[in-house]
Amino acid sequence: MAKPWNLPVVIINAILVVSLAVIWITFAPTNLGGQVSYVIVNGVSMEPGFQLGDLTILRKASDYQIGDVVTYHDSKMEAYVIHRIIGVDQNHFVLKGDNNSWVDAYHPTHEEIIGKLWIYIPKLGRTFTWLRSPLNLALSIVLLGGILMAGMVAKPARHGKSKTNLFGNFDGMLEGGLYTCGLFALVFLGLSIFAFIRPLTRTAEKFQYQQESQFSYSATGTPVIYDTNVVRSGEPVFPKLTCFLNIAFTYNVLGDQLQGVSGSYQLIARVMDEQSGWQRTIPMNQSTAFSGNSFFTTSTLDICQTVALVNILKQETGLRANSYTLEIIPQVIMTANAAGNQITDSFEPRLVFRFDEVHFSLSTPKDQDDPLHSSKQGSADNLSLEANRLSILGWEPTVWSIRMIALFGMALSLGGFLFLGSRVFATTQQSQEALIRLRYGGLLVNVYERDLAPAATLIDVTTIDELAKLAERHNTVILHMTLNFLHCYLVQCNGITYRYVFSAGKRGAPEIEPAQRQVISYVKDVNGNNRMEVEPVEAELFGYAIDGRSASAEDPDTIILRKIRL
């Protein structure tokens, strides 16, 4: 049954609209401008915590820590991988599946990570997998459409013409306008609360900078063995042909906000056996200071001494390895100033060779794509303040602008609400019938007297509010009938008719005495039209039907319609 329009309904609908907006902003996927990604577990590498077919919801984060479950895209596997961070190597994250005994070969950067685990829902991913089938999706849409259409079947219209509304559709427009203004006022109120609990300013984003390095090496070559008489970067070096390896290193730091860059560096050579863990460090030069965003240095390493050192290791310890590792490591300490904030950072790129007694060959470190080039991302806190911004589906307005929009919208909505409210008040002061329609328009049905079924008992109520309570209790509607200047409201149930009647007055017609009883009848005139007559009586009248002929009326054209007490 339709309910009358009231404020709680507006509040409920406003809360629903705001809730839906908040849900959309919170759970909007990244491909639609949101911050959330949805990944279905497809494997056993994270068991027992994550099972095949589980749904994981991830959010992009500004920082990732050891222990976080994150997802990244592995270009070699051409798949999304959801694993746990177990370590950090410079600007790369080391990941491993909880159920795996090995570490992921690919180490993603911060930018390559899609997001970290936010919500975990077991088995729900299987439902989405099932819906991916075109046939299953089509069946689901048809079923949902059938359910929605079942509730939209219209009821057949009642026969007969409806009574002309005294104000046309004006009251409906007022009701809709009040509803809309109230709804928008609540929406903007929620937006105001949302904006005013957030600060206008925030600490500016961290300064981003990048340290880069470039290695090169050369040695004296033999034209018979090499293309030229110089060994170039990337080519193997043979100790029998030359003992001296020339190393060149270029350093550069990039960052628009960095000022006063300076620091120190030192090149070292590290000989090691990865299987046994043995290593020996050899300084290649003294610690040297530098200033500016870049520097270039060179040094020479005697690789014949390196081979001799390994031979001594074999003789003294009996260690036998097929090959060893030589690392050239520049140890760089950099300091700079960024908007008053002092930055200190280190950088240790590596130039790696695998060698034995015969030759040295260039090798690529696990965390580098290029054996001669390396880079490291860095960041520093920014002490300055900037306007606080919110991300809403790709749009990033300031909190101040959201506050202004919310206040302006709320003022406009309240102004419209007050204006329409004054119109409603003025309308209801002019007509009680208009007030009833505004309050109980959803319960009212306009009818003719001939549409009413006879009732055994007639009970008058004192107010329209009481009649509305009866209608709601019996889950029925209020029948509204007008007889000239009389408005009659009826609720019929279980053979009983509950009635509320008032007189709206009629220009040129006498007012009816409150204590007077009348019999209202229609008398046909010479043209065949019904003419209403009101005749006072002194005693109770019995035996008259609600809609029928009088059992004792002498004039067959006189039809008794109602017994009305005013």
Can you give me a brief rundown of this structure?
The chain contains eight helices and 29 strands. The protein has 566 residues and is an alpha+beta fold. It has four domains: 1-25 and 158-202 and 388-431, no CATH class; 26-148, Umud Fragment, subunit A (Ribbon), CATH 2.10.109.10; 207-383, Immunoglobulin-like (Sandwich), CATH 2.60.40; 443-565, no CATH class.
What does this structure look like?
The protein has eight helices and 29 strands. It has helices at 7-27, 124-131, 134-150, 170-196, 303-317, 399-430, 432-440, 464-473; strands at residues 36-40, 55-59, 69-74, 79-89, 92-96, 113-121, 201-203, 207-220, 230-231, 244-254, 259-272, 279-283, 288-291, 294-302, 324-338, 341-347, 351-355, 360-363, 373-380, 385-387, 444-446, 457-460, 478-483, 486-493, 496-503, 517-524, 530-537, 548-549, 559-565. The strands form six sheets. Strands 11, 12, 13, 15, 16, 17 and 18 form a seven-stranded antiparallel sheet that branches. Strands 1-2-6-3-4-5 form a six-stranded antiparallel sheet. A hairpin with a 2-residue loop joins strand 23 and strand 24. It starts with 6 loop residues before the first helix and ends with a strand.
